[in-house]
Please model this.
Amino acid sequence: MSTDHRFLVVLDVDSTLINEEGLDEIARAVDQETGARIASVTERAMRGEIDFVQSLTERVALLAGVSQDVLAEAASSLSITPGAHELVSAVQEAGGKVCAVSGGFHELVDPLAREVGLDDWRANRFVIESGRLTGGIDGAIVDGAAKKDALAQWASQWGFQTPHTVAIGDGANDIPMLQSAGVSVGFCAKRAVQAVVDHTITERDLSQVLTLLGMTRG
Ligand SMILES: [Mg+2]
Model:
């Protein structure tokens, strides 16, 4: 391990930076039946059984007509994963950067990203008209390829060489980003992810990444 501990760390959000799946929490805030339908599509997508973009499009379409007030309600039910604050501050104190890229939505990710103190983040955005979700997604969808591109762009922007890039995720759409990073970490990951990563963390404690990077204090 190099003694240069300046890393770019890029985290997935749903089930990685936070303990929940954001879209499932939105669905739960709407009604039970919609919640169950959306959760079942999420689970299949996470296992890589169906295409991420198609599954996301389908799930968001189920939300057409829903009041944007449910977004705030869903956001209040999200919790930041243990060890996240410790990971972010240690990496930043060492001169590194910490970012997140999410196939979820800005409306939920923005408050969390600010609370944790991320350097930058990307996510999808709902189309909202007259206070209601239209069931559409604004602009290009953040999928697996876009996650990989985000990591590459941040690395280029701040001058991190590949061995100093770290990707952390749990789902099938994190695989391209994980495979492109110098250090890949499966975090309580699905089996398809565990098969391709350098390191696996099985406890919900993001500070364990610091040990993998040789940054443990003490
Ligand atoms: Mg995830």
Summary: The longest strand covers residues 97-105.
